[in-house]
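From the methods appendix. Each design record in this collection lists the tokenized structure first, followed by the designed amino acid sequence. Records were kept in a plain field format so they could be parsed without special tools. The example shown here is representative of the layout used throughout.

RECORD:
FOLD TOKENS (330 positions):
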């Protein structure tokens, strides 16, 4: 299954990140990292890290870690993937979207460096991917980095992109083995060139996979998505490809970034940490999506919480604006 047991060493890429203004003081390296922060999590894993700009790496003390299969307390991620009797395969959502909220709060509540929260969040993501593969969910869209997240400190932003590169590089064997299609939505122009190349290569290598599609929303904003779609439609009108009278919802939908999937509209949106908002995520696409909010912080969101969300979804009647009820899936 989706595993990180054989991490692949990364290339020595020179990566720099655009500095962003922020009114908040940057956290100290001690706040984000701890000298021994990884030893108890990955005692048997090799140490790997994406090599960023040397000065940034020294200043920010980016930890050299591998993403292992252990969770807090030593519990293996190879948990029971059996579908519980309360769920019905025929009522499974085709497309699940997730706002993975609460990584930093999870670390703060435990007195841990913030890096521990992000790493714990990656492990929760791995659990969900395993469950989606086992329960035949077709598309999983994950909100990883918002266009608004550039306001966070430079240290935190750098760590996120470093972690992202390590995740994709160490998972590539599992992605290919499990026939996972990996797509990215969002403005990648601000990413370091090596990261842009890596994303392009992975998308190209997995474009014909059909078991599960993972859509990673990185530097993504729902408003920006609609604006860029409108610009694209306008350009086609100017070029004479379509006429103004031809513009309808289907025309706009084809220009949204979720045109990378057969199922662009999520059936179910899950947000963790108790927040009750969609935070500029898939604003057009969520028009008739069933929303589910959970109080657990993302690193604590496991199989039982996912089952609860799916069970809630399967009990709902979806009307799509009509008077008559319809099953949970169209």
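DESIGN:
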């Amino acid at each position: 299954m989706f595993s990180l047991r054989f991490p692949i060493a990364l290339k020595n890429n020179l990566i720099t990140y655009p500095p962003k203004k922020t009114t908040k003081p940057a956290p100290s390296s001690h706040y984000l990292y701890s000298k021994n922060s990884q030893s108890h999590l990955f005692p048997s894993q090799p140490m790997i890290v994406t090599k960023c700009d040397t000065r940034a790496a020294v200043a920010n003390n980016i930890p050299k870690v591998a993403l292992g299969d252990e969770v807090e307390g030593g519990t293996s991620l190879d948990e029971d993937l059996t579908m519980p009797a309360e769920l019905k395969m025929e009522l499974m959502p085709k497309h699940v979207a997730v706002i993975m909220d609460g990584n930093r709060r999870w670390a703060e509540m435990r007195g841990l460096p913030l890096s521990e929260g992000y790493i714990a969040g990656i492990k929760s993501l791995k659990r969900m991917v395993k469950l989606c593969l086992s329960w035949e969910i077709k598309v999983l869209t994950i909100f990883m980095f918002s266009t608004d997240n550039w306001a966070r400190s430079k240290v935190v932003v750098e760590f996120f992109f470093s972690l992202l590169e390590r995740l994709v590089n160490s998972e590539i064997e599992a992605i290919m083995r499990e026939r996972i299609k990996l797509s990215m939505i969002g403005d990648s122009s601000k990413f370091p060139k090596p990261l842009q190349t890596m994303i392009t290569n992975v998308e190209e290598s997995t474009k014909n996979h059909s078991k599960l599609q993972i859509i990673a929303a990185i530097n993504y904003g729902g408003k920006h998505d609609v604006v860029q779609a409108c610009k694209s439609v306008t350009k086609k009108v100017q070029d004479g490809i379509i006429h103004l009278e031809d513009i309808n919802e289907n025309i706009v939908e084809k220009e949204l970034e979720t045109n990378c999937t057969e199922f662009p509209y999520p059936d179910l949106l899950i947000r963790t940490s108790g927040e009750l908002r969609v935070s500029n995520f898939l604003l057009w696409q969520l028009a008739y999506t069933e929303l589910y909010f959970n109080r657990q912080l993302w690193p604590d969101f496991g199989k039982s919480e996912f089952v609860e969300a799916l069970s809630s979804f399967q009990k709902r009647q979806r009307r799509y604006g009509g008077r008559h009820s319809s099953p949970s899936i169209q």
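APPENDIX NOTE: Residues 1-30, 34-68, 70-76 have pLDDT under 50 and may be disordered.
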